[in-house]
Amino acid sequence: MSGSCFAAGGMETDRLWIESAQPDSGSLVKAGESLQIKARVAYELTSTPTGNIQVRAVAGNQNIFSHVYPVGYGEGVQDVLFPSVLAEGDQLLVHFVLMPDGAIQGVEEKLFYQTPPGAFRLEMVGESSITVNPGQQVDLKMKVSTPNGYAVPNAEYVVSLVERGGEPDFLGQAGQTRTTISTDDAGQAELRFFPASITGFGVDRFPQDREIQFVTRDGEHSATIGLKLLPGPAVPAKTLPRVERIYLLKEKETVENTGELITLETFPLDTGEIFVLYEFANLQPPAILKASWLDAGRNIQFGEVPMLIPTTAGRSRFTIRQPNDGWAVGRYQVTISWEGTVLKTIEFSISN
Q1: What is the rounded CA–CA span in Å between residue 287 and residue 309?
Q2: Which of 60, 133, 248, 344 has CB atoms 3.0–4.6 Å from 232's, for a disulfide?
C-alpha cells in the first residue's frame, strides 16, 4: 500500500513512505494468535550522506520490537518483518522514523493494528448533564475505549437509550428505538436522539435521567453510561395573530368604506374581480400574512399573495382576479394564514 510522504522541519528533501504492509494498516487481528508484520518502507535521504531507519512496535504499553537499519544517501527500500501476539483489546502501533546522522528529528510513518472490540468502556465527550427544551433534539458525542484506555476506532455498536424506568427514546431521524453507529478513527461516535417524554411536559418533570447502552454486534459485550437532562431557559410561546372577519365584495368603492360591511356569498360567472377586506388583531409587526384561494370543488389553488402588515391591528385588503381560463361554476375558498397556521377561511360560490 502506498503511504503519504512526510518531511521534518528543516529537512524538506528527506522522505519516507510505506510501499506495502501485510496485514494492511488499520486491520483487525485476532487476539492470542501469532501475527506476522511485514512491511516494505521506501525512503529518500538527501540531507546527510548516511542515516538510519528506526523501527519500534508498541502494544499494550510494552515495546515488543525495536530495530535500527542503517541507510545511505539517495533512494532505497527496507523490508521489515517481525512477529507479534496481541491480547484482547490491545492496539499495535509500528513507528518508522528516517533519521539523518546527527539529527534530533526525523521523518515518521506508522502502521496500526488492533483486536476486534471486546470489553470496552464509554465516556461522554463534553458534559454529562445537558439542558434541553420541549421538542428539542439532543446531540451527543461518545468515546469508546478499551479497559486499558486505548480508543476503539472503526467499530460498530448497537445503541439504545431509555429513560430510567420509562419509555425508550427515539434515535436518529427514523423513529427507531435502536440504531447502529460506528466509531471514527479517534474512537468517537455521534448520537442524536429525541427525548420521548420531553414534549408537552412541565419543568417539574426535570431533572430526567437517561441510560445509554452500547452493545457489540455479537452481543457478547456491552457498556452503559448515564446522562442527565436539565431544563433549558423558558421559551416564551408565540402569540397567535387573529383574523376577525373576512369580507368578499364586488365594489372597490365599498372596500374603502369604514362603516358596516356585508360580505357576499355568491358572484356571477362574469365577475372580473372580487375585492377582499379583512380585519386582523394581535400581530407583532412587521408580520407577513399570506392569502390564498382555490377552487374547492376541484381542489385547485389558483392564486396566493403575501402581505406585509406594519401594525398590530386594523384592516387590510387584496384582490382576487378571474382566472385566465375563466371561472368554473362551483365553490371557492379563501384562506388567510401566518407562518403556516390557518387563521381564517371563508367560502364563496360562482353561479350562472
Answers
A1: 5
A2: 133
